[in-house]
Amino acid sequence: MINKEEVERIAGLIKLEITPDEADSLQEHFNKILGYFELLGNLPLESVDPFVGDEDVICPMRGDDVSRWDNVMALNELANFNEEGYFEVPSILGEDN
């Protein structure tokens, strides 16, 4: 089980400021989650083959059809290119990355 000090240490590792009430609530949630994992760990799975599935299900595949797209100018109007000619996209990591 997780104690309040561990909850506060985890919050510090992820730079999350929490109040004592929030630490109590998180401790309760974490311990419930760990309780579920303990229940799962106690399931009798010795007779279950992990590689058995529903073999009758067929995943439909789309056709691999090659087609030419001739509207390159429309793409040029929508896209930003860098000096090397590659597409420029917004950073998802933030300003300093």
Tell me what the structure shows:
With 97 residues, the chain is mainly alpha-helical. The chain is 40% helix and 4% strand. The longest helix has 22 residues, at 20-41. It starts with a helix and ends in a 9-residue tail after the last strand. A two-stranded antiparallel ribbon has the order 1-2. The chain has a domain at 1-43: Glu-tRNAGln amidotransferase C subunit, N-terminal domain (Histone, subunit A, Orthogonal Bundle).
Q: Based on DSSP secondary structure assignment, what is the total number of beta strands?
A: 2
Name the strands of the widest sheet in spatial order. Answer: 1-2
Structural class: mainly alpha
CATH architecture of the domain at 1-43: Orthogonal Bundle
Q: What helical percentage do the residues reach?
A: 40-55%
- Sheet-strand content, in percent, reads under 5%
Order of helices and strands: HHHEE
Low-confidence stretches: none
Superfamily at the CATH H level of the domain at 1-43?
Glu-tRNAGln amidotransferase C subunit, N-terminal domain
CATH class of the domain at 1-43: Mainly Alpha
Radius of gyration (CA) equals 26 Å
User: Termini distance?
Assistant: 38 Å
CATH topology of the domain at 1-43: Histone, subunit A
Biggest sheet statistics? 2 strands, antiparallel
Mean pLDDT: 86
